[in-house]
Amino acid sequence: MKAPAALDRPPSAGPMNGAESLIRTLVGGGVDVCFANPGTSEMHFVAALDRVPAMHCILALFEGVCTGAADGYARMADRPAATLLHLGPGFANGMANLHNASKANTPLVNVVGDHATYHRAYDSPLTSDVEGIARPYSNWLRTSKSATDVSGDAATAIAAARRAPGHIATLILPANTAWSAAGDIAEVEPDERRAIVADAAVERAALLLRSGPAAIIVAGPALREGPLATAGRIATLTGAKIYAPYGMARAERGAGRVPFERVPFSLDGALAMFAQMRSIILVGATAPVAFFAYPGRPSVLTPDDCTVHVLSRPDEDGVAALEALAERLGARTSAPGFAPALAPASPQGPITLPGIAAVVAAAIPQHAIVVDESQTSGRAIMTTSIGSAPHDYICNTGGSIGYALPVAVGAAVACPDRPVLCLEADGSGMYTLQALWTIARENLNVTTVIMANRKYQVLIGESKNVGAGGVEALGPRALDMLEIGRPNLDWVALANGMGVPGERVTTLDAFAAALQRDLREPGPALIEVVV
Amino acid sequence: MKAPAALDRPPSAGPMNGAESLIRTLVGGGVDVCFANPGTSEMHFVAALDRVPAMHCILALFEGVCTGAADGYARMADRPAATLLHLGPGFANGMANLHNASKANTPLVNVVGDHATYHRAYDSPLTSDVEGIARPYSNWLRTSKSATDVSGDAATAIAAARRAPGHIATLILPANTAWSAAGDIAEVEPDERRAIVADAAVERAALLLRSGPAAIIVAGPALREGPLATAGRIATLTGAKIYAPYGMARAERGAGRVPFERVPFSLDGALAMFAQMRSIILVGATAPVAFFAYPGRPSVLTPDDCTVHVLSRPDEDGVAALEALAERLGARTSAPGFAPALAPASPQGPITLPGIAAVVAAAIPQHAIVVDESQTSGRAIMTTSIGSAPHDYICNTGGSIGYALPVAVGAAVACPDRPVLCLEADGSGMYTLQALWTIARENLNVTTVIMANRKYQVLIGESKNVGAGGVEALGPRALDMLEIGRPNLDWVALANGMGVPGERVTTLDAFAAALQRDLREPGPALIEVVV
Predict the structure, then answer these.
(1) How far is the C-alpha of B265 from the C-alpha of B243, rounded, in Å?
(2) Which residues of A touch B458 (CB under 8 A)?
(3) What is the pLDDT of residue A15?
(4) Looking at B347-453, which runs of residues are DSSP E strands?
């Protein structure tokens, strides 16, 4: 964290306003990227950007892009970005991706402009209950009372965001607290270490792992290469299986790393996965439950006689807990089973879902970041890519769709030297397609693949699952609500309209050629795969 | 309102589920249009659409389109539409346009699916505080407790939405209340008449109008042709001037109707407008205040010695109040000053803002519905179109941008025999561009004009107004946040990508030709005007 003195503000510059004190406090606290969609009440923040060049501010054309990008940034940078949003409606537009960020335990600082404190009483058109709107997705929430409070409030917000396992902090900045004279910038309290789990929790985990079929579900920072290797050693010794939640925030995987299975979306698949387990060890994960309820079916994925044991809570040090567990089991020197490199393949011919998975798995470059929202069309990709070149894999943690394009923006900003592969579906992609413009504007190295099946395909299955009837039982008016191919979306035109070059492919050969080319060349590209 | 018996459900059909009882209650209560973006928890609602053909359900690819369309529908149909939204994040995506709807006093019924009641405790990924998220924009809010409660809850929701002046009602439907066996459908209480204003309020208004320069600010249903004629008679007799709020929900205007001025967005313009007024009479309007606060400038637009008098509150009968006032003043037989028909004009040559206004004013067809979110590029359109062919004019009531394309969808659904002209700016249009797809899908008679100045132009002025510096004082990094032309958006490509034919024009002649053609021909079209 930079000391305030390093921020290079000449004493001759006169008093700062609140907005400048905020930006300097953010930068001093290690928050030097901001995804912004400003309005009138944020103009002093915007104007101050030229006085604080250390703040990297990136414009998006819709707030859902800002919040998703901040989520993606933090998942890859391991530190929060800020967003800059315009009053209650601006925050509201960003909420769906804050939902996903909250389920990912992402640290994130929202800065929300509001009317001047004295102006609120007049109920002018944009007056809104900003605190009420922000509350459901703000673990920490404060409205600055005066310009001299702003820097202290901002420092507290940053500390709150960074507190393990990561939180959403929202600072509301009335316009007059931005434009009035501020005090000094504030320093952020250093982070506390994550809590070390109790010996008893390690002991109990060891006992359970020794006494029958067991699963270890790993989430959070323990899904990185090092702790997964530790989990792998434990698995080799005990025969336990390693899983990650369906909605994992970020995992390091690929050839030469310890593989894990993802808990499937499908209820039957998930139930079968855990049916024989006598115990489940949770490392930063929550107990596995069904994504949705289905009539007469269970909400809990584990058998009644299966013990679910918390080795580490999301806010505890799961990495140290795995090491302590390996030590306790005598597994420190066991050999983890690493994933072998993928056998070369060049799938050809008509587009099929296994073919898509094979093309993607073969094309993932070394150190790539894969952001996956490919929905039903991409169900086979994770399994097929176990032996791909080592990469990071990012999933939708909260199930609110339209997350991948914005998260890809943030991941690319956090890691400018790594290629980003965004696997998107046509239905979910339409929620936040404005992200393509920011990708073009920032010339981000993001290759987007749109899997266009021209349906809300997942809902056709879900309709059957909830007892409303599958595709054969639904009438034409119901099916029309799940059909997005009337008219077809032309994703090449949509991408071009926002400055991203695009190509449509209808064979696996063409897909493979386009994907390999786009991942090799820097800068943005989009491929529409007609499924 | 249709009686339940008219809903044609054979007794042999067996018990309804909650979702079907909801749809039948909605239809019975006069809510027979629903703008939907469903998910798993809404599948029983979707499946029931084939059993209740009277419900017209329209798909949108983003929830902000659903809520905006429901707003536009009710503004034109004078009755609520429903939305169908998916849990907390789905509601959140629709909130910005609910903000605008709430400021328009639009009646609207949101149906929000949630997890089954027993599933919520498991905190699965999409679990959210739906009530907490919905509360800030729900005047009425309830979660159905069981399937047998659903129809009664829905009937109460409809009545709450329709209560004057119009409210947002949100009914949350846990999945098990949708799929379980329901009771009978419920009837909606008939609406109460709007309250008649007290004689004293009329008497006081008459006194003020007789005693010096006065303004009448008209909003709500009093902005229709009949009551405006009454206001015109009063104005002729007393010399009062007639105004509408900057954010008027809907006004009937054009040649042969009583003209009014719109309170401008600009603070200086608004202050000058009221500077000489000794009294302001509010008819369904709120006292005029500045859109934003500016340092050292007033929030209230009227002079200190100006009396602001409420003739009718938004929930009272402003139409009757105007008639009573005319009677009291002896103005029943005065001749209102009607707007003369616009002189023919055919502006040519390079694009200018007055030229755009002239082209639009000349092209507005008889009975058109104009939805205006043209921002700075369209500031002259309202003034220029005072004598256009008679039409309805719809504005952004809440200042949350991205309202016009969705509202145009709803207006076109409400009035399929009337052309809709959507005047949109490039910046605001990008918030909810997904509406173009619904326009194409439903083959709506909407002509969209995108005024592409490739900037957040309004913010350049606002930056100066708030003291952050105008275009000459802002640095390059600040200006870059107000610049959306890097890269340029290609609106023709974006429209084509969603199935809407488009054309780019760079001269006024070409604009006039394209606009006249597109307004004459049925179905969707888009014109990008490069400003």
Answers:
(1) 13
(2) 40
(3) 84
(4) 368-373, 391-395, 420-425, 446-452
Query: Residues of B numbered 137-156 whose beta carbons fall under 8 angstroms of chain A's beta carbons: which are they?
Result: none
Q: Do B101 and B209 share a domain, yes or no? A: no
The amino acid that residue B467 corresponds to is G
Q: Does A124 lie at the interface with B, CB-CB under 8 angstroms? A: yes
Considering only CB atoms, which chain B residues are within 8 Å of A492?
497
Extract the tokens encoding B115: 């997890």
The domain spanning residue A52 has which CATH number?
3.40.50.970
- Between strands B307-312 and B279-283, the pairing is parallel
- Sheet containing strand B214-218, strands side by side: B261-262, B241-244, B214-218, B279-283, B307-312
Distance CA A163, CA A194 (A): 9
For chain B of 531 residues, list the mean pLDDT of each consecutive stretch of 10: 54 85 98 98 97 98 98 98 98 98 98 98 97 98 98 98 98 98 95 96 98 96 98 98 97 98 95 97 97 96 97 98 98 94 92 98 98 95 97 98 98 98 98 98 98 95 93 94 96 98 98 98 98 95
Averaged pLDDT for residues A481-507: 97
- CATH number, domain of B322, equals 3.40.50.1220
What ipTM was reported for this prediction? 0.97
Q: Average pLDDT, whole number, for chain A?
A: 96
Give the C-alpha distances (Å, rounded to integers) separating B230 from B227, B262, B315: 5, 18, 19
Kindly state the tokens that stand for A448: 């987007």
B165 preceded by a cis bond (ω within 30 of 0): yes
Does residue A6 have a pLDDT over 70? no
Does A156 lie in the same domain as A18?
yes
Q: Does A313 touch chain B (CB under 8 A)?
A: no
- Ramachandran assignment for B31, one of left (phi > 0), alpha (psi -120 to 50 degrees), beta (any other): beta
> Do residues B281 and B404 both lie within one domain?
no
Q: Which of A34, A83, A25, A73 is nearest to A55 (CA)?
A: A34
Q: What is the mean pLDDT of residues A478-503?
A: 97
